[in-house]
Amino acid sequence: MSPVLDIKDLSVSYWTPGGDVRAVSHVNLTLNRGEVVGLCGESGSGKSTLAYGSCRLLRPPAVITSGQVLYSGTRTGAVEPVDILRASNRDLNALRWRDIAIVFQSAMNALNPVLRVRDQILDAMGAHLRLPRDEAREKAAGLLDLVGIPRERLRSYPHELSGGMRQRIMIAMALAADPEVVIMDEPTTALDVVVQRDILAQIVELKERLGFSVLFITHDMSLLLELADRIAVMYAGQLLEVGTSEALQVAPAHPYTQGLLRSFPSLRGARRELSGIPGTPPDLRDPAPGCPFIPRCAYTVPSCSQVDMTLAPVSGTRGPRHVTACPIVTPELVAKAASDTSAAPAAQAVPAAGAASEGAHP
Amino acid sequence: MTQDPTTITAVRSAAAGSGRALAMQGIGLSRDFRLAGGRTLHAVRDVSFDLYKGAVVALVGESGSGKSTVARMLAGQESLTAGSITLDGEPVSLRGGTAFRRYKSEVQYVFQDPFSSLNPVHSVGYHLSRPVRLHQGRGVNVDERVMALLEQVRLTPAAQFVTKYPHELSGGQRQRVSFARALAAQPKVLLADEPVSMLDVSIRLEMLNLLDDLRKRLSIALLYITHDIASARYFADEVLVMYAGQVVERGPAEEVTQQPAHPYTQLLISSAPDPDNLGSVLKSGNSAARAGSTGSGPALTGCPFSTRCPLADDKCRAENPALHQLTAVRAAACWRLSDAAPALAGGAATPAIPERTVNVDK
Q: How close B199 gets to chain A, by Cα (Å)?
């Protein structure tokens, strides 16, 4: 597996009168070819800023203060990966949409209400692909075929389409130039579960067929566990844990991830005790030293404020497949805390019956 | 197509079991909207249910299924085309100012979006003191009541929050203010229209727990409207599944979610994200296996779900099924129940196998 997008030490700040808001600080994240990486965090955790920052799509007051974003596409022809943060505007324009496409948040409202769907698709194609007119029209129709919308819908205005259809059109537009990386920012948040599932299934199917990689941003961990190959958990601008979906589900290492897993009701299996994560995220204008999760964490010890937040392999695993920023909480500690109190917070970290014997743990 | 009233009343409300007092009843509620060209949209068709004090009834369905219209009818915001509402056993008539105001103080509404349901130019204190003055009359100490309300929804220290404006609050805090505003009228019935769907997953649980606590403590009858059937499982006593304005299935929450009878309920449940299902349909890209998920809207004649239902036959397309009683507390409207849920339709006690069990046999 070769990396296609490699985010290294990326930091983004928002300059505000009240002081700099460090929305993203020193994040390292790799997206491999053909992979779905889920980026998960609550609102304000910096997940969208990370994604847009890595494509240089942020405007002041957002400022990228450190880092590199290396894109190694097969199409650029360059031997060396391109650093998106230092590329010329011309290179960047050539890269955007053709190599790296984005499905924006609330894509349902991202279509222009006074233009027909066809004209919007042609607009984008005109700006980035420079196809002859007939070819562009044919391609626009082909895009709708791709996502299973009848061709005559090209003549429709956005308000004549259902939310799911609009979302599909946004996805089709992102795929117009056969990109290598597609960043999806909460593409299904406003949709019903049935439509959501159809769209996710379609994304996966298209990914298999066209071979792009996906960076999927959402606050819904339950969705990612099913969809993503790997999941990165973000909190207060930093990554707290990165691992395969299996690893995160079976043995979440960071207390925040453990909390997230206890936050959503499940439909299947026995009813489990749900506790959620009490408290609110910290103020990013004045971050306290050490781990940002200290105020909400059940395992806090004095040395937490000296944690340097680098991602290290989870004890008992090797290599970069499962890393956590928490050196304090170990499975032994969790087990001990669980036996100390009857309201065992760790009990839910134990997977549903059957999954443990699968050896899914890397 | 009208349901036989005896069938419906025979289905005992699942919430009735624990000797709770009846608070509100909707009997055969219907609402038509006239469309351009003389067509009629049956937004709600013959919906009946009972709300008991201290119990939660969940109305589950996709957008456009009529669930919000039902709530708006109960709130007196929408006139009834047919049917009636009773409150404490008395039939409700919503004409006349005083009666309407009294009704409003008994039945309160919590809106979906805390970002638009609070007035940005008014403080939290103003939002709460108005309903206190309006509904609790003279002679109450308004400031004291406002403080008590804030403490009830755990916005503490209350003195700090009372002067704040909506933009100074997080989404969760705003929704707490909405809850407090609804409670200010000291209602008997609370209509919560997707109260958590705009909030982060990690906060949703806290909010639902708060609502749960409030309805128990204040013994409020709660109608919980949602498209997330998983939260209904945890939160509700009885679940009513709506499709195209009709109730297609009803029963105790745990039974309906674990052993769905109607094909639409089965589709809803199989669509919900399933974190335990790591090797899922999604990852294999095998979306064709899902029947009846996409596309067509409800049928105009026959069973509304017949256009999407994998089991639909000629009878389904011709005649609209009435709610058919399955057990003392369960009912479903489907002609093909013997195929959709053989165990239930036959009246046998053997539990049916859920649509998708934990899928680990790779």
A: 9
